[in-house]
């Protein structure tokens, strides 16, 4: 208990130093306490990298499972990703209830993240985007298939989400409640990407580096595949080529992450 109280006090002290108001109605029994700044920096970097690379604009979001507690995840308050800083990062339980909201606005579609973390213990990071290059594949039955080795993960399967299958009446297309979040997680299944009809895409990864990598190269693949299809018959990677490419990319994801993070954080 003493240790816990010390951590709670430290948390408040950090907030004061950061120029924020300490929580007036904090529920410390739910909080995991202060987070390693290096972890938060990775999540901030992920927001900015995805904006820099054109995957996210003012909308869309990226989250990370809390490495201290698998029943929590971290994500920014409702904010354009390019503007996200460490002080914007919030903590949620897997029902997507904030641990300490402090009046901050939250992403309406946060249930995408919480429900995927519930359903998939292997997933530690989720990216949700409305990137235009994905959209033709969201609304047509043409498959998103691996054009080159960098997007080999597509060979592990591309899931589809039809929101009408999980709603009793017409929706605004947003995954803005737990039931729709569960439907999306169910549609994702054991895959690493799900295309959402009339909406966008969601990517899952074993780390924030992997989720960001798949979002960037998935969106690039979609754009290049569209161009290739305009030229003629496309020769895609075989299943075996795609899987071998994905395995290599998963091992060497640090190379691109190091570059992207450096570039993104140097701009502020
Ligand atoms: Zn969305």
How would you describe what is shown here?
A hairpin with a 3-residue loop joins β6 (193-196) and β7 (200-205). α3 crosses α5. The protein has a 7-stranded mixed beta sheet, sandwiched between helices. Helices cover 40% and strands 12% of the residues. The protein is built from 8 helices and 7 strands; from the N terminus they run ααβββαβαβαββααα. It has 2 domains: 1-34, no CATH class; 35-266, Class II aldolase/adducin N-terminal domain (L-fuculose-1-phosphate Aldolase, 3-Layer(aba) Sandwich), CATH 3.40.225.10. Mean pLDDT is 90; it is low at 1-29. It has 268 residues and is α+β, with helices and mostly antiparallel strands. The protein is globular and about 55 Å long. The site of zinc ion (ZN) has 5 residues, from loops.
SSE layout and pairings?
Blueprint: H1 2-17, H2 37-52, E1 61-65, E2 72-76, E3 89-93, H3 111-119, E4 125-129, H4 135-139, E5 159-161, H5 178-188, E6 193-196, E7 200-205, H6 208-231, H7 239-251, H8 253-266
Parallel strand pairs: 5-6
Antiparallel strand pairs: 1-2, 1-4, 2-3, 4-7, 6-7
The structure holds zinc ion.
Zinc ion is lined by residues 109, 128, 130, 199-200.
Considering the chains and any ligands shown, give keywords for the structure:
7-stranded mixed β-sheet; 40% helix; binds zinc ion; 268 residues; single chain; L-fuculose-1-phosphate Aldolase; 2 domains; disordered N terminus; 8 helices; alpha+beta
Q: What is the CATH superfamily of the largest domain? A: Class II aldolase/adducin N-terminal domain
Radius of gyration: 19 Å
Provide a count of the helices: 8
Across the major sheet, the strand order is 3-2-1-4-7-6-5
What is the average per-residue confidence, as pLDDT, rounded to a whole number?
A: 90
Largest sheet: 7 strands, mixed
Bound molecules: zinc ion
**Hey, roughly how much beta strand do the residues contain?**
5-15%
Number of domains: 2
Order of helices and strands: HHEEEHEHEHEEHHH
CATH architecture of the largest domain: 3-Layer(aba) Sandwich
> What distance separates the N and C termini?
39 Å
Number-wise, the strands total 7
Shape, per Cα inertia axes: globular
Low-confidence stretches: 1-29
- Report the top-level CATH class of the largest domain: Alpha Beta
**Helix-and-strand structural type:** alpha+beta
């Amino acid at each position: 208990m003493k240790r816990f109280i010390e951590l709670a006090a430290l948390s408040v002290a950090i907030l004061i130093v950061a120029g924020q108001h300490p929580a007036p109605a904090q529920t410390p029994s739910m909080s995991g306490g202060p987070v390693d700044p290096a972890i938060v920096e990775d999540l901030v970097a992920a927001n900015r990298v995805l904006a820099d690379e054109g995957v996210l604009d003012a909308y869309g979001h990226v989250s990370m499972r809390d490495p201290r507690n698998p029943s929590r995840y971290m994500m920014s308050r409702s904010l354009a990703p390019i503007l996200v800083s460490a002080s914007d990062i919030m903590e949620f339980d897997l029902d997507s209830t904030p641990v300490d909201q402090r009046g901050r606005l939250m992403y309406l579609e946060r249930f995408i993240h919480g429900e995927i973390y519930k359903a998939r213990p292997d997933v530690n990071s989720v990216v949700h985007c409305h990137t235009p290059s994905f959209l033709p594949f969201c609304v047509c039955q043409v498959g998103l298939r691996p054009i080159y080795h960098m997007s080999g993960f597509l060979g592990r399967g591309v899931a589809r989400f039809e929101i009408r299958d999980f709603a009793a009446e017409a929706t605004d297309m947003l995954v803005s409640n737990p039931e729709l979040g569960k439907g999306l997680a169910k549609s994702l299944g054991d895959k690493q990407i799900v295309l959402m009809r009339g909406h966008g895409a969601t990517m899952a990864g074993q780390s924030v580096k992997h989720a960001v990598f798949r979002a960037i190269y998935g969106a690039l693949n979609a754009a290049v595949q569209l161009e290739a299809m305009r030229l003629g018959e496309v020769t895609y990677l075989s299943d075996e080529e795609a899987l071998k490419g994905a395995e290599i990319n998963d091992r060497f994801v640090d190379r691109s992450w190091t570059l992207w993070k450096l570039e993104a954080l140097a701009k502020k």
